Automatic annotation (TrEMBL), chain B:
InterPro entries: F1F0-ATPsyn_F_prd. It holds the Pfam family WRW. The chain crosses the membrane at residues 57-77. This is ATP synthase F(0) complex subunit f, mitochondrial. One of its GO terms (cellular component) is mitochondrial inner membrane. Subunit f, of the mitochondrial membrane ATP synthase complex (F(1)F(0) ATP synthase or Complex V) that produces ATP from ADP in the presence of a proton gradient across the membrane which is generated by electron transport complexes of the respiratory chain. ATP synthase complex consist of a soluble F(1) head domain - the catalytic core - and a membrane F(1) domain - the membrane proton channel. These two domains are linked by a central stalk rotating inside the F(1) region and a stationary peripheral stalk. It is a single-pass membrane protein. The keyword Acetylation applies. PANTHER family: ATP SYNTHASE F CHAIN, MITOCHONDRIAL-RELATED, ATP SYNTHASE SUBUNIT F, MITOCHONDRIAL. Keywords: Acetylation, ATP synthesis, CF(0), Hydrogen ion transport, Ion transport, Membrane, Mitochondrion, Mitochondrion inner membrane, Phosphoprotein, Transmembrane, Transmembrane helix, Transport. The lineage of its organism: Eukaryota, Metazoa, Chordata, Craniata, Vertebrata. The gene is ATP5MF. Component of the ATP synthase complex composed at least of ATP5F1A/subunit alpha, ATP5F1B/subunit beta, ATP5MC1/subunit c (homooctomer), MT-ATP6/subunit a, MT-ATP8/subunit 8, ATP5ME/subunit e, ATP5MF/subunit f, ATP5MG/subunit g, ATP5MK/subunit k, ATP5MJ/subunit j, ATP5F1C/subunit gamma, ATP5F1D/subunit delta, ATP5F1E/subunit epsilon, ATP5PF/subunit F6, ATP5PB/subunit b, ATP5PD/subunit d, ATP5PO/subunit OSCP. GO terms for molecular function: proton-transporting ATP synthase activity, rotational mechanism. It is found in: Mitochondrion inner membrane.
Amino acid sequence: MLSRLGLRAAPAALKSLAPSLSVGPFHTGQRCLAPLPPLPEKGGQVRHGLIPEEFFQFLYPKTGVTGPYVLGTGLLFYLLSKEIYIINHETIAGACVVGVLIYIVKKYGGDVAAFADRLNEEKVAKALAVKNDSINHLESIIEQEKKEQWRVEGRNYLFDAKRNNVAMLLETNYRERLLTVYNEVKKRLDYQIAVQQLTRRKEQDHMINWIEKNVIQSITAQQEKESIAKCISDLKMLSKSTRVAV
Amino acid sequence: MADRPVPLKDTRLLDVKLGQVPSWIAMRDFTPSGLIGAVRRGYDRYLNKYINVKKGGIGGIAMVLFGYVVVSYVWNYEHLKHDRWRKYH
């Protein structure tokens, strides 16, 4: 349980005990890009916190279940009787310390383990969140890309519409200019016509004035008297004819 | 369960027959790099078995501390000899 807490601390501490070495064929192969296999769920089993389970399994075929315990008891009595393990003040101190340690481990081991598990799960959840975020982001990018590709298909219609617009503009412009040209030409032709008519009228007026002036000048006084006498005689004849008619 | 005969050099210690143990020991690599390599291998094996797991127990560290206690007791035995209760055992 403490090892769960010290997934970073314990290996670092233990690594400082053993010397680190950099000889030998380390890191010479190709970098393996496959993800590492996940950590095993449970470590090697340890009975009573001190003795690996393999020892019990090793003795089981020959001595059954109680074999290792009998071995342990015999070993303990041998050490005590031969005083290879000496009982002195340190034994009592050690026993008290061991008792307190066992009490603490039994009481708070589960809580510490749960805390370490939660830390680990938070780390994993953060990594998973990053991975999921990036996956979602990439998926949305893929969606947008597909949408852009769909839009590209409609590009032809867009260009046709634009081409139509441009053709319309050109046509309109051409027609406007045609109209302008027509108007200008018409104005010039109207001007010419107006000039000709004016000239003719002026010539007519001038001619009439000149003829009248000359005729009036040519009528002398003698001719006037003769013409007046002729008119009177004509009138007398006319009055006679009308009196007869009535 | 003996498949093809493996040379003695490559067998593991637990598979070596009792009579072959001295020759097996003689064949081991006792150069400094070999010794350090052996220590490194043992350390890695212990680490991967008891510490680099998802749900480790107290055993991983407790065994190391217990080994430390035992080794320190052995190294201090010369001092502790004077606290013996009886002279003759």
